[in-house]
Fold:
Amino acid sequence: MDKLTLTQPDDWHLHVRNGSVLKTVIAHTANQFARAIIMPNLKPPITKVNEALNYRSEILQALPVGTSFNPLMTLYLTAKTTVNEVKKVANSEYVHAFKLYPAGATTNSDAGVNELKSIYPILEAMQQVDVPLLIHGEVSDNACDIFDREKVFIESSLANIVKTFPKLRIVVEHVTTKEAVDFVLSASDKVAATITPQHLMFNRNAILAGGIRPHHYCLPIIKREHHRLALIKAAISGNPKFFLGTDSAPHLTSAKENSCGCAGCYSAYAALELYAEVFEKENALDKLEGFASFFGADFYQLPRNKKTVTLQRQAWTVPASYPIDNETITPLKANENLSWKL
Structure:
């Protein structure tokens, strides 16, 4: 197969930042995806509908002329979130979910939730009006091994949330472990998960073998090989509980390559091509359209896209970097070869 035509996909987990970074990266996403769920962890975080609408306007203004792209906004769930704000989200055409960050779990999560039971009244309100909850599923306890934080969160928190709020639609974002896959499979159809390209392509050797490789460092951190294989099995299964969410996270190269490099992989430049590499290796290119184009839209209760995109077999080399002002962003797989091109 030398060409693959798909219904235009959506990215159900995306960071685009703001300012000059936004202006640099948004065209990459808009070139491939019709829509994307936009993460709210800016500084300060996006916690109210009016803030999300302003951010949406900034995104739209940053798009190249003639580009058709619909940013799907989210709000950052905090201990100060009100039931009234939940109702505003339910009535908003442009805001689609709340994002839960356990405090300290990842980039710009300082405003996250320390005690999950304190937000149970908000989760109940979300359940009543059918507003989805998107979860960064890790504990942030420094005493917990970083490779176990997703597993512990599932056991200590997520299982109870799902049990307590059985009608709440939940996306367990960027799952990284077999335990997370198994949990999603065992839960009701109200629970789904996104999977990133880096967690499908790499195990933890990619971060540490041959030296520390900061551009493979993300949170949740990449895990052992048997977890990667479980993620691949889920992604290519055709099960609608699993769908595309890149978690593409642009950081300046200088912020990644220093004594305390930040977490995040920039994959938006060629997200669909990266997923195609994985699916082809598993002889599962026929499963890519459901994973990339259908299942997420169905879970979010949005119409499937009508346009198509075509991938063509074409060897090309990923750029070493993308310029931004006087700095750069280093993409995932920089200077490496890919075999599909949009």
Summary: The CA atoms of residues 323 and 329 lie 6 Å apart.
